[in-house]
Design brief:
Layout (H helix, E strand, L loop, with lengths): L2 E13 L2 H16 L7 H5 L3 E14 L2
Antiparallel strand pairs: 1-2
Length: 64
Amino acid sequence: MRYKSVIGCGSAYIIEDNTEKTNALNIITLKYLGRRYTYKSSDLNRTAVIKIVIEEASTKISGY
């Protein structure tokens, strides 16, 4: 059997600041869409962005 797995522990925080939300969303859009966006304040106020701080992580790989 071949598999790869990751297990982690950490803390999750809801980002309230719209500037921090924009920065986080732009990291994602740059990676997957190749460009940044301009977000309306009203859209950001309705969008939840969760920051996860990883405190521990372990990996397992078998069969590769």
